[in-house]
Amino acid sequence: MKLKETPEYVTLVPGGTNGGPRNGHYAALDPHFAAAKTGAEAIMAGLWNADDWETFRNNWKGAGPLPEGTPQPGTDVTESYIKIPTRDGAEIELKIMSSAKHTKSAETANDTVVVLRMHGGGWAIGWHGTEAIENLHAAAHPNVVLVSVDYRLAPEHPYPVPFNDCVDALKWVKANAASQLHANPEKIVLLGGSAGSGLSLAVALKAREENISGIVAMALDWPTGSHPKFFKQLTEKHGYELESYVQVPDGTVTGAAIMEFFLDAYTPNVQPDPYHSPLLADSFAGLPQAFLQVAGFDPLRDEGLAVAEKLQRDGVPTELHVYAGLPHCFSMLFTDLPQAKDYQARQNAFISKVVKAANSQ
């Protein structure tokens, strides 16, 4: 797979940049990660050694051992699959995961929360196993059913197909939570990582527009907020600091040229639209409470921080954690880092808090 030699939508600064005055300090490398950075970049480079999309996607499906303390498939978490129809007559697959030790039934449905997972992967790669560790932790919760959406991928299926598939999955959950998942259709948490976070946020915006009830929270990890073509107008209009593409153009796991590669696949001939660039929405008011985790040595850092800023500005209860000096998706790729354990513990605590609050009403 071939990247652009120079990013098209942002202008890199010769000699680099220290980033913006508010967020730039987050990029200073964490010493634990710095020791592993060179080896990690060699591994990442190997994943790009592919001549076609099928090979490229398969390169990213390799899974390492689960970290100690992760719930185990089969023993702790049951897994099943179902195909559902989409609005254009196609089918997509959902993976359904829940605790093997707490059987779901009609009697437990009222207190069972659906965690609807939109996976990461730049809208063009990724699958049910992309965030396997997080999914197993969430699904092991006694009051959770996790539903992972295998939305169709760009470039074969550019925007709005992946987004529409996620909206259709939400509507399927609403209609079938009680009967097929033994869960409450009015207790739904959107969970997304990277591109999946942008999709989750966009789904929440669509649910608000169409008065689809039931979403009680969003957990957004290293979220995408906007196509970089619109950074300048967002900065001028709202004062967001969107400089991490330029400060971290080669961020080990992803970089400016890599992001543009995926964006060109997902949104060719891009036009302004909040459903692919949620920061373009007039307001986030009325969206459900949000939990964000952002990496400091990540070109997506400032988008995530801008999303948090907009949520807070528009009155949405928002919990934000920033991990200075660490790369995109570090919790999945560098599981021995102490911050990876903090990351997972915080996500677990947020989901538990949301479940407890939803079931106390």
Automatic annotation (TrEMBL):
Classification via Pfam families: Abhydrolase_3 (PF07859)
Keywords in alphabetical order: Hydrolase
Protein name: Alpha/beta hydrolase fold-3 domain-containing protein
Residue ranges annotated for the Alpha/beta hydrolase fold-3 domain, each copy included: 115-331
Domain of life: Eukaryota
Native source species: Sporothrix eucalyptigena
PANTHER family listed in its UniProt record: AB HYDROLASE SUPERFAMILY PROTEIN C4A8.06C, ALPHA_BETA HYDROLASE FOLD-3 DOMAIN-CONTAINING PROTEIN-RELATED
Record's keyword annotation contains tRNA processing: no
